[in-house]
Amino acid sequence: MKESFEDLKNKVISGNQSESIAAVKKLIEEGENAKEIIDGALVPAMDTVGEKFQKNEFFIPELLVAGRAMEACMKILQPLLSAGDVKPRGTVLIGTVKGDLHDIGKNIVSAMLKGAGFEIIDIGTDVPPAKFADEVAARKPDVLGLSALLTTTMRAMKDTIEELKRKGVRDSVKIMVGGAPLTQQYADEIGADAYGRDAADAVKRAKELVGV
């Protein structure tokens, strides 16, 4: 890895947003390609953050600050990507299910997925099944991410999948579920395509679902 990419990677891992932004701007001024900056520094940074989280070396606060640093860099790079007609790895429509107002987990997963090269459509919290189905029909994402943090709102995931079937769009999208109370067994029971046990695992599952 180039020393300048390694430097940016380390700044993102440490969650230093202002220094990360400065490093990205410097790389652009030096003529580096936006996609190469993402693939060479930002994706490896978020991969490392995910690994550290799974090893209990990082916790939620570290994930959040690293994710914010990465997102700040992506805001600078995104217009350059569009100009170069670089396509994302896939599109993920994500939201927290009806009755659940928690968004930290969803936001962390979104940040990690952006860092891995996915386009994210975040439709927020307390999203009813009909809205998920309508958004899938309209936006045609590759993956639908359903988040729930409460045992009492897990049922809404099943209701959402049933609504997708009712509206004839279930087979058009891969469904990934996640959240503290969930298990692989529950994901299987409700007919989801994948279960992400944490943010890093969700990125792996999303890559598998779109075949990258």
Number of strands: 5
Element order: H for helix, E for strand: HHHHEHEHEHEHEH
CATH superfamily of the largest domain, by name, is Cobalamin-binding domain
In total, the number of domains comes to 2
Main beta-sheet strand count, sense and barrel state: 5 strands, parallel
Q: Could you estimate the helical fraction of the residues in percent?
A: 55-70%
Radius of gyration: 17 Å
Helix segment tally: 9
CATH architecture classification name of the largest domain: 3-Layer(aba) Sandwich
CATH class of the largest domain: Alpha Beta
Q: How much of the residues is beta strand, in percent?
A: 5-15%
Classify the fold: give the CATH topology of the largest domain: Rossmann fold
Shape: globular
Unreliable stretches (pLDDT < 50, length at least 5) are none
How are the strands of the largest sheet arranged? 2-1-3-4-5
Topology:
Elements: H1 3-13, H2 17-29, H3 34-54, H4 60-83, E1 91-96, H5 104-115, E2 119-122, H6 129-139, E3 143-147, H7 155-166, E4 174-178, H8 184-190, E5 194-196, H9 199-210
Parallel strand pairs: 1-2, 1-3, 3-4, 4-5
What structural keywords apply?
2 domains, alpha/beta, single chain, 58% helix, Rossmann fold, Methyltransferase, Methionine Synthase (B12-binding Domains), Chain A, domain 1, 5 strands, 9 helices, 5-stranded parallel beta sheet, 212 residues
